[in-house]
Amino acid sequence: MSSKNKVALITGVTGQDGSYLSELLLDKGYEVHGIKRRASQFNTDRVDHLYHDPHFKGLPFYLHYGDMTDSTNLIRLIQETQPDEIYNLAAQSHVQVSFESPEYTADVDAMGTLRMLEAIRILGLEKKTRFYQASTSELYGKVVETPQNEDTPFYPRSPYGVAKLYAFWICKNYREAYDMFAVNGILFNHESPRRGETFVTRKITRAAVRIAAGLQEKTFLGNMNAKRDWGHAKDYVKGMWLMLQQDDPEDLVLATGETTSVRDFCEMAFGAAGIELEWEGEGVNERGIVKSVDEDVISQHFNNSTQLRQGSVGQATHSEIQTPKTGDTVIEVDPQYFRPTEVELLLGDPSRAQEKLGWKHEYAINDLVEDMVTSDFKEIQANNE
């Protein structure tokens, strides 16, 4: 079956990965159906450029209301769309939030996966529908070896990681019990300009840009020593698609094979925004301080930076929050952002995916940071025009 005849169903379609995956599949000629939760406000910013009023012709992209906690709803949607491929990307995916909402996280991330697999089985689509489960490097948690690969034992350290562990094993169980084409993509951290603002990478790039523009004084972070294998989401959705095009289902790790600390990510992000950092103190007393400011770099990001800085955001005006100067503290550590059980180091080994899929990441960490910072500058400028 050619890509032009295929139908894909994506849960979590309005998220970072869902939006990039939708673009990829539409470009390959798929008919794409996405499931989104009902809300009193529109929450489709990431896919608005793909959506069209059903009364008019447009891309074969359709949105349906649904929820991972509603079995009947999921069965109906799968029955109606008859997908060749399902990408289960929906999740409560914020690790820190999972400590505050562990039951909800388990219901969506663990039981939600079971509901999708059971719907495929109940509808008799085991031979037709291929299933991709968005797994996570958080499965490794308290790592027992570095780098982590497909054979590394799991040791999750959060309710999110534990819920995803159940999802991993139930996916594998249904594959073996019912001969379903169901795979887990064990994806290491992947970011982009579409990343939610509460996730640490986007929190950092957004803060760097706002501080450089004189719209924010400082930002507060947690464990500065934590290291992650960060890649670009655009690269990772290609790997998701490739995993469902193989002859035989197999769980694979997607990663860059490089790790970066939160502190180093801060230096790259602020540097891309025109601010050079230096550090003082340790632990909860550590601070990121402005070593120098490159006004030329900041100006390059704006068509009219003077006009922007004379504007206001909320109650903060330029007269109240100035562009940073040498010696200003722009990053502080707040213990409330520490996890009850910390994951210190994640570093993936993507060699098997490279061999099996021919997949490799194209974005280096510096390219990723530059993309996010540039996008955040454009967003601020657009909001102040």
In summary, what is this structure?
With 385 residues, the chain is α/β, with parallel strands linked by helices.
User: What shape does the CA trace take?
Assistant: globular
| Rg over alpha carbons | 22 Å
Structural class from helices and strands? alpha/beta
**Average pLDDT:** 91
Q: CATH topology of the largest domain, anyone?
A: Rossmann fold
The total beta strand count reads 17
Number of helices: 12
Give a written overview of the molecule.
The structure is a single chain. The protein has 385 residues and is of the alpha/beta class. It has 2 domains: 3-194 and 231-258 and 345-363, NAD(P)-binding Rossmann-like Domain (Rossmann fold); 200-223 and 263-342 and 377-384, UDP-galactose 4-epimerase, domain 1 (Alpha-Beta Complex), CATH 3.90.25. 37% of the residues lie in helices and 18% in strands. It is built from 12 helices and 17 strands. It has helices at 16-27, 71-81, 95-100, 102-122, 159-178, 200-212, 233-243, 262-272, 295-300, 305-309, 351-357, 365-383; strands at 7-11, 31-36, 61-65, 85-88, 130-136, 182-187, 190-191, 219-221, 227-228, 231-232, 252-254, 260-261, 275-280, 287-293, 312-313, 316-317, 329-333. The strands form 5 sheets. Strands 3-2-1-4-5-6-11 form a 7-stranded parallel beta sheet, with helices on both faces. Strands 8-17-14-13 form a 4-stranded mixed beta sheet. The protein has a two-stranded parallel sheet with strand order 7-10. Helix 6 (200-212) packs across helix 12 (365-383) and helix 8 crosses helix 12 (365-383). The longest helix has 21 residues, at 102-122. The chain is globular and about 65 Å long. The N and C termini lie far apart (48 Å). 47% of the residues are buried. The model is unreliable at 304-320 (pLDDT under 50).
